[in-house]
Design goal:
This protein is mainly alpha-helical. The protein has 21 helices and twelve strands. Among the domains are: 121 residues, Rossmann fold (3-Layer(aba) Sandwich), CATH 3.40.50; 99 residues, Glutamyl-tRNA Synthetase, domain 3 (Alpha-Beta Complex); 98 residues, Orthogonal Bundle (Arc Repressor Mutant, subunit A), CATH 1.10.10. Helix 7 links the parallel strand 9 and strand 10. The radius of gyration is 31 Å and the shape is elongated. The termini are far apart. 34% of the residues are buried. It binds glutamic acid. The site of glutamic acid has 7 residues, from loops.
Length: 469
Protein backbone atom coordinates (compact mmCIF):
# COMPACT_ATOMS: atom_id res chain seq x y z
CA UNK A 1 0.00 0.00 0.00
CA UNK A 2 1.14 3.53 -0.78
CA UNK A 3 1.60 5.63 2.35
CA UNK A 4 2.53 9.31 2.14
CA UNK A 5 2.69 12.07 4.67
CA UNK A 6 2.83 15.81 4.98
CA UNK A 7 5.12 16.94 7.77
CA UNK A 8 4.89 20.66 8.44
CA UNK A 9 6.76 22.46 11.18
CA UNK A 10 4.35 24.73 13.07
CA UNK A 11 6.64 27.73 12.92
CA UNK A 12 4.61 29.95 10.62
CA UNK A 13 1.60 30.13 8.32
CA UNK A 14 1.10 27.48 5.67
CA UNK A 15 3.23 28.62 2.71
CA UNK A 16 1.86 28.08 -0.81
CA UNK A 17 4.84 25.84 -1.60
CA UNK A 18 4.16 23.63 1.39
CA UNK A 19 0.47 23.58 0.57
CA UNK A 20 1.33 22.27 -2.89
CA UNK A 21 3.56 19.60 -1.31
CA UNK A 22 0.67 18.58 0.94
CA UNK A 23 -1.71 18.44 -2.00
CA UNK A 24 0.61 16.32 -4.15
CA UNK A 25 1.26 13.89 -1.27
CA UNK A 26 -2.46 13.68 -0.68
CA UNK A 27 -3.33 13.17 -4.36
CA UNK A 28 -0.69 10.49 -4.78
CA UNK A 29 -1.96 8.54 -1.76
CA UNK A 30 -5.61 8.88 -2.78
CA UNK A 31 -4.89 7.95 -6.38
CA UNK A 32 -3.38 4.68 -5.18
CA UNK A 33 -6.09 4.16 -2.56
CA UNK A 34 -3.36 4.44 0.04
CA UNK A 35 -2.97 6.31 3.27
CA UNK A 36 -2.17 9.98 3.87
CA UNK A 37 -0.67 11.03 7.19
CA UNK A 38 -0.40 14.47 8.76
CA UNK A 39 2.57 14.75 11.08
CA UNK A 40 3.33 17.92 13.00
CA UNK A 41 7.10 18.33 13.27
CA UNK A 42 7.41 20.32 16.44
CA UNK A 43 10.68 19.06 17.90
CA UNK A 44 12.09 22.57 17.74
CA UNK A 45 10.37 23.70 20.88
CA UNK A 46 11.48 27.30 20.65
CA UNK A 47 10.07 28.00 17.22
CA UNK A 48 6.98 25.78 17.25
CA UNK A 49 3.71 27.09 18.63
CA UNK A 50 0.26 25.62 19.19
CA UNK A 51 -1.29 28.62 17.44
CA UNK A 52 0.61 27.91 14.24
CA UNK A 53 -0.28 24.23 14.52
CA UNK A 54 -3.99 25.08 14.81
CA UNK A 55 -3.79 27.42 11.86
CA UNK A 56 -1.94 24.88 9.70
CA UNK A 57 -4.63 22.32 10.41
CA UNK A 58 -7.40 24.80 9.74
CA UNK A 59 -5.86 25.87 6.44
CA UNK A 60 -5.27 22.29 5.29
CA UNK A 61 -8.88 21.42 6.05
CA UNK A 62 -10.04 24.58 4.33
CA UNK A 63 -8.13 23.47 1.22
CA UNK A 64 -10.09 20.25 1.27
CA UNK A 65 -7.42 17.86 2.54
CA UNK A 66 -8.24 15.14 4.99
CA UNK A 67 -5.86 12.64 6.57
CA UNK A 68 -6.08 9.10 7.85
CA UNK A 69 -3.62 9.42 10.71
CA UNK A 70 -2.34 12.29 12.77
CA UNK A 71 0.87 12.53 14.82
CA UNK A 72 2.68 15.16 16.79
CA UNK A 73 6.41 14.62 17.21
CA UNK A 74 6.56 16.30 20.61
CA UNK A 75 4.48 13.37 21.90
CA UNK A 76 6.95 10.79 20.63
CA UNK A 77 10.14 11.75 22.42
CA UNK A 78 10.30 8.41 24.25
CA UNK A 79 10.38 6.58 20.94
CA UNK A 80 13.19 8.76 19.60
CA UNK A 81 15.18 8.25 22.79
CA UNK A 82 14.95 4.52 22.34
CA UNK A 83 16.25 4.72 18.77
CA UNK A 84 19.06 7.13 19.68
CA UNK A 85 20.12 4.59 22.28
CA UNK A 86 20.04 1.83 19.68
CA UNK A 87 22.33 3.85 17.42
CA UNK A 88 24.78 4.40 20.27
CA UNK A 89 24.77 0.73 21.19
CA UNK A 90 25.37 -0.39 17.64
CA UNK A 91 28.27 2.06 17.32
CA UNK A 92 26.50 4.30 14.81
CA UNK A 93 26.28 7.29 17.12
CA UNK A 94 28.33 8.75 19.95
CA UNK A 95 28.12 11.50 22.56
CA UNK A 96 29.97 14.68 21.63
CA UNK A 97 31.14 16.99 24.40
CA UNK A 98 32.57 19.73 22.21
CA UNK A 99 31.51 23.17 23.38
CA UNK A 100 29.98 25.79 21.13
CA UNK A 101 33.27 27.71 21.32
CA UNK A 102 35.29 24.71 20.17
CA UNK A 103 32.92 24.11 17.28
CA UNK A 104 33.03 27.77 16.36
CA UNK A 105 36.82 27.59 16.33
CA UNK A 106 36.70 24.60 13.95
CA UNK A 107 34.25 26.43 11.73
CA UNK A 108 36.48 29.50 11.57
CA UNK A 109 39.52 27.44 10.66
CA UNK A 110 37.65 25.77 7.83
CA UNK A 111 36.57 29.16 6.60
CA UNK A 112 40.16 30.47 6.68
CA UNK A 113 41.29 27.50 4.65
CA UNK A 114 38.39 28.00 2.29
CA UNK A 115 37.00 24.47 2.71
CA UNK A 116 33.41 23.59 3.57
CA UNK A 117 32.97 23.01 7.29
CA UNK A 118 32.31 19.64 8.79
CA UNK A 119 32.79 18.39 12.30
CA UNK A 120 36.31 17.10 12.98
CA UNK A 121 35.12 13.93 14.66
CA UNK A 122 37.10 14.74 17.80
CA UNK A 123 34.71 12.95 20.18
CA UNK A 124 34.46 9.85 17.97
CA UNK A 125 37.54 8.42 19.63
CA UNK A 126 36.55 8.95 23.28
CA UNK A 127 36.72 5.70 25.22
CA UNK A 128 33.81 4.40 27.26
CA UNK A 129 35.63 5.47 30.43
CA UNK A 130 36.30 8.99 29.19
CA UNK A 131 32.63 9.36 28.29
CA UNK A 132 31.59 8.16 31.76
CA UNK A 133 33.87 10.67 33.46
CA UNK A 134 32.59 13.58 31.37
CA UNK A 135 28.98 12.56 31.99
CA UNK A 136 29.61 12.35 35.72
CA UNK A 137 31.03 15.86 35.60
CA UNK A 138 27.67 16.89 34.09
CA UNK A 139 29.30 18.19 30.94
CA UNK A 140 26.57 18.93 28.36
CA UNK A 141 26.71 16.78 25.25
CA UNK A 142 24.99 16.18 21.97
CA UNK A 143 24.66 12.87 20.17
CA UNK A 144 26.22 12.66 16.76
CA UNK A 145 25.69 10.19 13.98
CA UNK A 146 28.90 8.55 12.81
CA UNK A 147 29.12 9.16 9.08
CA UNK A 148 31.44 6.92 7.05
CA UNK A 149 34.29 8.86 5.43
CA UNK A 150 34.40 9.64 1.75
CA UNK A 151 31.49 7.45 0.72
CA UNK A 152 28.99 8.11 -2.05
CA UNK A 153 25.36 7.92 -0.99
CA UNK A 154 23.15 7.47 -4.02
CA UNK A 155 19.42 7.38 -4.58
CA UNK A 156 16.98 7.51 -7.46
CA UNK A 157 14.65 10.41 -6.94
CA UNK A 158 11.35 9.81 -8.71
CA UNK A 159 11.38 13.33 -10.12
CA UNK A 160 14.98 14.47 -10.05
CA UNK A 161 16.51 11.18 -11.14
CA UNK A 162 19.89 9.86 -10.04
CA UNK A 163 21.41 11.78 -7.13
CA UNK A 164 24.82 11.07 -5.58
CA UNK A 165 26.26 12.97 -2.63
CA UNK A 166 29.61 12.36 -0.94
CA UNK A 167 29.51 11.94 2.85
CA UNK A 168 32.54 14.22 3.16
CA UNK A 169 30.17 17.06 2.20
CA UNK A 170 28.56 16.91 5.63
CA UNK A 171 30.42 14.76 8.18
CA UNK A 172 29.12 13.60 11.57
CA UNK A 173 25.90 15.43 12.35
CA UNK A 174 23.91 15.98 15.54
CA UNK A 175 20.87 13.76 16.07
CA UNK A 176 20.10 14.78 19.67
CA UNK A 177 20.74 18.33 20.93
CA UNK A 178 22.35 19.03 24.29
CA UNK A 179 18.92 19.82 25.77
CA UNK A 180 17.86 16.27 24.89
CA UNK A 181 15.60 17.18 21.96
CA UNK A 182 16.12 15.14 18.79
CA UNK A 183 16.81 16.81 15.43
CA UNK A 184 14.83 16.72 12.22
CA UNK A 185 17.11 14.42 10.19
CA UNK A 186 16.89 11.77 12.86
CA UNK A 187 13.21 11.83 13.86
CA UNK A 188 12.05 12.06 10.27
CA UNK A 189 13.64 8.67 9.64
CA UNK A 190 12.29 7.02 12.77
CA UNK A 191 8.80 8.32 12.03
CA UNK A 192 8.73 7.62 8.31
CA UNK A 193 9.96 4.08 8.98
CA UNK A 194 7.61 3.32 11.89
CA UNK A 195 4.64 4.85 10.08
CA UNK A 196 5.38 2.76 7.01
CA UNK A 197 5.77 5.74 4.66
CA UNK A 198 6.51 4.38 1.20
CA UNK A 199 6.99 7.67 -0.66
CA UNK A 200 8.61 10.69 0.95
CA UNK A 201 7.25 13.64 -1.01
CA UNK A 202 8.69 17.04 -0.09
CA UNK A 203 10.38 20.17 -1.38
CA UNK A 204 13.69 19.91 -3.19
CA UNK A 205 15.36 22.03 -0.51
CA UNK A 206 15.52 18.74 1.44
CA UNK A 207 17.74 16.97 -1.09
CA UNK A 208 20.94 17.68 0.94
CA UNK A 209 19.26 16.05 3.97
CA UNK A 210 18.37 12.87 2.14
CA UNK A 211 21.80 11.14 2.25
CA UNK A 212 21.98 11.74 6.00
CA UNK A 213 18.59 10.15 6.37
CA UNK A 214 19.49 7.20 4.15
CA UNK A 215 22.50 6.48 6.37
CA UNK A 216 20.23 6.41 9.42
CA UNK A 217 17.72 4.12 7.69
CA UNK A 218 20.54 1.72 6.94
CA UNK A 219 22.04 1.93 10.43
CA UNK A 220 18.68 1.10 11.98
CA UNK A 221 17.98 -1.67 9.49
CA UNK A 222 14.92 0.08 8.07
CA UNK A 223 13.79 -0.12 4.48
CA UNK A 224 14.65 3.06 2.58
CA UNK A 225 11.48 4.64 1.07
CA UNK A 226 11.18 6.21 -2.37
CA UNK A 227 12.05 9.90 -2.49
CA UNK A 228 10.13 12.47 -4.47
CA UNK A 229 11.59 15.96 -4.36
CA UNK A 230 9.31 18.60 -5.80
CA UNK A 231 10.85 21.51 -7.69
CA UNK A 232 10.71 24.87 -5.93
CA UNK A 233 8.17 27.52 -6.70
CA UNK A 234 9.65 30.76 -7.99
CA UNK A 235 8.28 34.28 -8.15
CA UNK A 236 7.97 36.01 -11.52
CA UNK A 237 11.49 37.40 -11.05
CA UNK A 238 12.71 33.79 -10.87
CA UNK A 239 13.85 33.99 -7.26
CA UNK A 240 12.44 31.62 -4.67
CA UNK A 241 8.86 32.55 -3.80
CA UNK A 242 8.97 34.43 -0.52
CA UNK A 243 7.36 37.27 1.37
CA UNK A 244 9.13 39.69 -0.92
CA UNK A 245 6.69 38.61 -3.60
CA UNK A 246 3.70 39.64 -1.49
CA UNK A 247 1.11 37.22 -0.18
CA UNK A 248 2.60 33.72 0.02
CA UNK A 249 0.54 31.98 2.67
CA UNK A 250 -2.69 30.10 2.17
CA UNK A 251 -4.14 32.29 4.93
CA UNK A 252 -3.49 35.45 2.89
CA UNK A 253 -5.43 34.12 -0.06
CA UNK A 254 -8.23 32.84 2.10
CA UNK A 255 -8.62 36.28 3.64
CA UNK A 256 -8.52 37.95 0.24
CA UNK A 257 -11.53 35.93 -0.82
CA UNK A 258 -10.09 33.11 -2.87
CA UNK A 259 -12.14 29.94 -3.00
CA UNK A 260 -10.39 26.84 -1.66
CA UNK A 261 -11.29 24.86 -4.78
CA UNK A 262 -9.67 27.50 -6.97
CA UNK A 263 -6.49 27.71 -4.91
CA UNK A 264 -6.30 23.90 -4.79
CA UNK A 265 -6.73 23.76 -8.56
CA UNK A 266 -4.13 26.47 -9.16
CA UNK A 267 -1.52 24.88 -6.88
CA UNK A 268 -1.96 21.59 -8.72
CA UNK A 269 -1.17 23.31 -11.99
CA UNK A 270 2.13 24.58 -10.56
CA UNK A 271 4.77 22.27 -11.92
CA UNK A 272 2.36 19.64 -13.13
CA UNK A 273 1.42 19.11 -16.76
CA UNK A 274 -2.17 18.35 -17.43
CA UNK A 275 -2.42 15.18 -19.50
CA UNK A 276 -5.24 16.85 -21.41
CA UNK A 277 -3.51 19.56 -23.40
CA UNK A 278 -4.95 22.97 -22.55
CA UNK A 279 -7.36 21.85 -19.86
CA UNK A 280 -6.93 23.71 -16.59
CA UNK A 281 -10.08 23.27 -14.54
CA UNK A 282 -10.22 20.07 -12.54
CA UNK A 283 -12.08 19.15 -9.38
CA UNK A 284 -10.32 17.43 -6.50
CA UNK A 285 -11.93 14.13 -7.46
CA UNK A 286 -10.70 14.48 -11.03
CA UNK A 287 -7.19 15.26 -9.86
CA UNK A 288 -7.24 12.16 -7.67
CA UNK A 289 -8.22 10.09 -10.67
CA UNK A 290 -5.53 11.34 -13.04
CA UNK A 291 -2.66 12.32 -10.75
CA UNK A 292 0.69 10.75 -11.68
CA UNK A 293 4.16 11.63 -10.46
CA UNK A 294 5.36 11.34 -14.06
CA UNK A 295 3.40 14.47 -14.91
CA UNK A 296 5.34 16.61 -12.43
CA UNK A 297 7.96 18.78 -14.13
CA UNK A 298 11.48 18.58 -12.81
CA UNK A 299 12.14 22.28 -13.41
CA UNK A 300 10.92 25.04 -11.09
CA UNK A 301 7.37 26.30 -11.35
CA UNK A 302 6.61 30.00 -11.58
CA UNK A 303 3.88 31.42 -9.44
CA UNK A 304 1.64 33.73 -11.40
CA UNK A 305 -0.65 35.73 -9.16
CA UNK A 306 -2.67 37.09 -12.07
CA UNK A 307 -3.39 33.61 -13.30
CA UNK A 308 -4.50 32.49 -9.85
CA UNK A 309 -6.80 35.48 -9.67
CA UNK A 310 -8.19 34.76 -13.11
CA UNK A 311 -8.80 31.13 -12.14
CA UNK A 312 -10.56 32.24 -8.98
CA UNK A 313 -12.79 34.40 -11.16
CA UNK A 314 -13.63 31.39 -13.32
CA UNK A 315 -14.60 29.44 -10.21
CA UNK A 316 -16.75 32.30 -8.92
CA UNK A 317 -18.39 32.81 -12.32
CA UNK A 318 -19.07 29.33 -13.48
CA UNK A 319 -17.57 26.49 -11.51
CA UNK A 320 -19.08 26.64 -8.03
CA UNK A 321 -22.84 26.49 -7.49
CA UNK A 322 -24.72 29.67 -6.66
CA UNK A 323 -25.56 28.28 -3.21
CA UNK A 324 -21.91 27.63 -2.47
CA UNK A 325 -20.96 31.09 -3.66
CA UNK A 326 -23.59 32.59 -1.34
CA UNK A 327 -22.19 30.57 1.58
CA UNK A 328 -18.69 31.84 0.91
CA UNK A 329 -19.77 35.41 0.22
CA UNK A 330 -21.87 36.05 3.34
CA UNK A 331 -18.97 35.98 5.86
CA UNK A 332 -17.13 38.52 3.71
CA UNK A 333 -20.17 40.77 3.68
CA UNK A 334 -20.49 40.49 7.43
CA UNK A 335 -16.83 41.23 7.92
CA UNK A 336 -17.29 44.42 5.92
CA UNK A 337 -20.16 45.32 8.25
CA UNK A 338 -23.09 44.74 5.85
CA UNK A 339 -26.23 42.84 6.60
CA UNK A 340 -28.51 41.18 4.12
CA UNK A 341 -30.71 38.14 4.08
CA UNK A 342 -29.66 35.09 2.16
CA UNK A 343 -32.34 35.36 -0.51
CA UNK A 344 -31.30 38.93 -1.32
CA UNK A 345 -27.60 37.94 -1.49
CA UNK A 346 -28.54 35.10 -3.81
CA UNK A 347 -30.41 37.43 -6.15
CA UNK A 348 -27.53 39.89 -6.21
CA UNK A 349 -24.90 37.22 -6.92
CA UNK A 350 -26.98 35.53 -9.55
CA UNK A 351 -26.78 38.66 -11.67
CA UNK A 352 -23.31 39.84 -10.72
CA UNK A 353 -21.08 36.81 -10.17
CA UNK A 354 -19.32 37.49 -13.46
CA UNK A 355 -18.15 40.91 -12.36
CA UNK A 356 -15.44 40.16 -9.80
CA UNK A 357 -12.56 37.75 -9.25
CA UNK A 358 -12.22 37.57 -5.47
CA UNK A 359 -14.90 37.69 -2.78
CA UNK A 360 -13.31 40.75 -1.26
CA UNK A 361 -13.36 42.49 -4.61
CA UNK A 362 -16.99 41.41 -4.91
CA UNK A 363 -18.00 42.94 -1.59
CA UNK A 364 -16.32 46.16 -2.59
CA UNK A 365 -17.90 46.27 -6.01
CA UNK A 366 -21.35 45.28 -4.85
CA UNK A 367 -21.45 47.75 -1.97
CA UNK A 368 -24.32 49.75 -3.55
CA UNK A 369 -26.55 46.68 -3.13
CA UNK A 370 -25.88 46.39 0.57
CA UNK A 371 -25.49 49.89 2.00
CA UNK A 372 -28.38 52.12 2.99
CA UNK A 373 -26.84 55.24 1.48
CA UNK A 374 -23.89 55.68 -0.84
CA UNK A 375 -21.10 58.17 -0.48
CA UNK A 376 -20.19 60.21 -3.51
CA UNK A 377 -16.79 60.33 -5.17
CA UNK A 378 -15.62 63.73 -6.41
CA UNK A 379 -16.32 62.73 -10.00
CA UNK A 380 -19.81 61.64 -9.04
CA UNK A 381 -20.48 64.99 -7.41
CA UNK A 382 -19.38 66.91 -10.45
CA UNK A 383 -21.69 64.80 -12.63
CA UNK A 384 -24.58 65.29 -10.24
CA UNK A 385 -24.05 69.04 -10.19
CA UNK A 386 -24.89 69.23 -13.91
CA UNK A 387 -28.28 70.61 -14.78
CA UNK A 388 -28.70 67.70 -17.23
CA UNK A 389 -28.34 65.22 -14.40
CA UNK A 390 -31.09 66.95 -12.46
CA UNK A 391 -33.43 66.66 -15.43
CA UNK A 392 -32.56 62.98 -15.89
CA UNK A 393 -33.08 62.10 -12.24
CA UNK A 394 -36.42 63.90 -12.02
CA UNK A 395 -37.62 62.23 -15.19
CA UNK A 396 -36.49 58.83 -13.98
CA UNK A 397 -38.14 59.28 -10.60
CA UNK A 398 -41.46 60.15 -12.23
CA UNK A 399 -41.39 57.10 -14.45
CA UNK A 400 -40.61 54.43 -11.92
CA UNK A 401 -43.70 54.83 -9.76
CA UNK A 402 -46.03 51.83 -9.98
CA UNK A 403 -43.68 49.87 -12.17
CA UNK A 404 -41.94 46.60 -11.63
CA UNK A 405 -38.35 47.63 -12.37
CA UNK A 406 -36.75 44.89 -14.42
CA UNK A 407 -33.44 45.34 -16.24
CA UNK A 408 -35.32 45.74 -19.54
CA UNK A 409 -37.68 48.29 -18.05
CA UNK A 410 -34.77 50.41 -16.83
CA UNK A 411 -33.25 50.37 -20.32
CA UNK A 412 -36.62 51.30 -21.83
CA UNK A 413 -37.02 54.25 -19.50
CA UNK A 414 -33.51 55.43 -20.35
CA UNK A 415 -34.41 55.28 -24.07
CA UNK A 416 -37.60 57.26 -23.47
CA UNK A 417 -35.70 59.97 -21.63
CA UNK A 418 -33.11 60.02 -24.38
CA UNK A 419 -35.78 60.52 -27.05
CA UNK A 420 -38.15 62.85 -25.28
CA UNK A 421 -35.66 65.11 -23.60
CA UNK A 422 -32.89 64.84 -26.19
CA UNK A 423 -30.28 63.82 -23.66
CA UNK A 424 -27.33 61.63 -24.61
CA UNK A 425 -27.44 58.04 -23.38
CA UNK A 426 -24.04 58.48 -21.73
CA UNK A 427 -25.32 61.41 -19.65
CA UNK A 428 -28.37 59.47 -18.57
CA UNK A 429 -26.40 56.48 -17.34
CA UNK A 430 -23.82 58.72 -15.69
CA UNK A 431 -26.46 60.57 -13.72
CA UNK A 432 -28.20 57.37 -12.64
CA UNK A 433 -24.98 55.65 -11.75
CA UNK A 434 -23.63 58.61 -9.79
CA UNK A 435 -26.81 58.95 -7.76
CA UNK A 436 -27.33 55.24 -7.13
CA UNK A 437 -23.77 54.08 -6.55
CA UNK A 438 -21.87 57.27 -5.73
CA UNK A 439 -19.34 56.40 -8.39
CA UNK A 440 -18.90 56.54 -12.14
CA UNK A 441 -17.89 52.97 -12.66
CA UNK A 442 -18.97 49.65 -11.20
CA UNK A 443 -22.05 47.45 -11.29
CA UNK A 444 -24.63 47.83 -14.05
CA UNK A 445 -27.31 50.37 -13.16
CA UNK A 446 -30.01 48.23 -14.75
CA UNK A 447 -29.00 45.25 -12.59
CA UNK A 448 -28.84 47.41 -9.50
CA UNK A 449 -32.32 48.86 -10.13
CA UNK A 450 -33.80 45.43 -10.76
CA UNK A 451 -32.69 44.19 -7.34
CA UNK A 452 -32.39 47.15 -4.98
CA UNK A 453 -35.68 47.80 -3.13
CA UNK A 454 -37.61 50.61 -4.85
CA UNK A 455 -37.69 52.65 -1.65
CA UNK A 456 -33.93 52.73 -1.56
CA UNK A 457 -33.69 53.74 -5.22
CA UNK A 458 -36.06 56.62 -4.64
CA UNK A 459 -34.26 57.68 -1.52
CA UNK A 460 -30.91 57.79 -3.30
CA UNK A 461 -32.26 59.81 -6.20
CA UNK A 462 -34.01 62.25 -3.91
CA UNK A 463 -30.83 62.70 -1.94
CA UNK A 464 -28.85 63.38 -5.13
CA UNK A 465 -31.51 65.93 -6.18
CA UNK A 466 -30.98 67.76 -2.93
CA UNK A 467 -27.52 68.69 -4.19
CA UNK A 468 -29.31 71.33 -6.34
CA UNK A 469 -31.40 72.91 -3.65
N1 LIG B 1 9.32 19.61 8.78
C1 LIG B 1 9.97 19.57 7.50
C2 LIG B 1 9.59 20.80 6.72
O1 LIG B 1 8.61 21.44 7.04
C3 LIG B 1 9.53 18.31 6.79
C4 LIG B 1 10.40 17.91 5.69
C5 LIG B 1 10.06 16.52 5.19
O2 LIG B 1 9.00 16.38 4.60
O3 LIG B 1 10.84 15.60 5.43
O4 LIG B 1 10.27 21.20 5.81
Amino acid sequence: MVITRFAPSPTGYLHLGNARTAIFSYLFARHHKGKFILRIEDTDRERSTKEFEDMLIEDLKWLGLEWDEFYRQSERFEIYKEYAQKLIESGHAYPCFCTLEELEEERKKAEERGVPYRYSGKCRVLSREEVEVLKRENKPYTIRFKVPDNTMVVFEDLIKGHIAINTDDFGDFVIVRSDGTPTYNFVVVVDDALMGVTHVIRGEDHIPNTPKQILIYEALGFKVPAFVHLPVILGEDRSKLSKRHGAVSVRNYREEGYLPEALFNYLCLLGWSSPEEGREIYSKEEFIKIFRLEDINSSPAIFNKEKLKWLNGVYIREVVSLERLVDEFIPFLQKAGYEADREYVRRVLQSTRDSFETLKEGVDRLKPFFVEEVSYSEEAISVLENETSRIVLEAFLQRIEDIDLTQEKVKEIAKEIQKELKIKAKDIWHALRASLTGKLEGVGVDILCSILPKERIKKRILRALQLYS
